[in-house]
Amino acid sequence: MIRCYLDANVLIFLQDKKSPFYNQAVLTIKQLILKRAEIFTSSLSLDEFLQGSLRFSRKTKQEMKGQLKIGLKKIFSLPQFRLVNPPDDTKRHMKVVDIVAKYNLRPRDAYHLFIMQENKIKYLATFDHDFDRVFAKGTVQKFPI
After folding, report:
1. Domain PIN: where (predicted)?
2. Which domains does the chain have, with CATH numbers?
3. CA-based torsion, 143, 76, 116, 12: positive or negative
4. DSSP character at residue 7
5. C-beta atoms surrounding 41 within 10 Å
């Protein structure tokens, strides 16, 4: 079974019909559903989704409150959707520094990869080219977008 982690940019584009990446994001989700994939994201991605949605909207937080809740409900209603988190064991988090160095990732992106590895998630749906080095080394696979 395919286990795929959704990066925040997919979540953002999925909610923004004006985005040039909206159709690709919708198609990606449809493909995951057709393949009966397990779909994952983390609170880290949700934080980025909320931040990005607010930034791109140019509206106040109060004005966006309803839209943000609708967006989260859409995400949470995806079939086979689950939230995953890093482990509680603080020693395991030292691995993030190794990931930053090995793949030249920003710490936030390294945390996404760390969460995926800790939860045995082999696919990543993203529009972010910062993960290209990770894909090239075969650490995880890019879900076709």
Report:
1. 5-134
2. 3-142 (3.40.50.1010)
3. positive
4. P
5. 27
**Separation between Cα atoms, residue 22 and residue 14, nearest integer Å:** 5
Place of tokens 């509206």: 59
- Tell me the C-alpha distance between 74 and 66, whole Å: 12
* Dist CA 135 CA 89 (whole Å): 27
Q: pLDDT tens digits, residue range 45-81? A: 999 999 999 988 888 888 889 999 999 999 999 999 9
Mean pLDDT over the full length of the chain: 96
Q: State residue 98 phi and psi, 5-degree precision.
A: -65, -40
Token duo for residue 72: 């989260």
The angle formed by the CA atoms of residues 22, 5 and 44, to the nearest 5 degrees, is 90
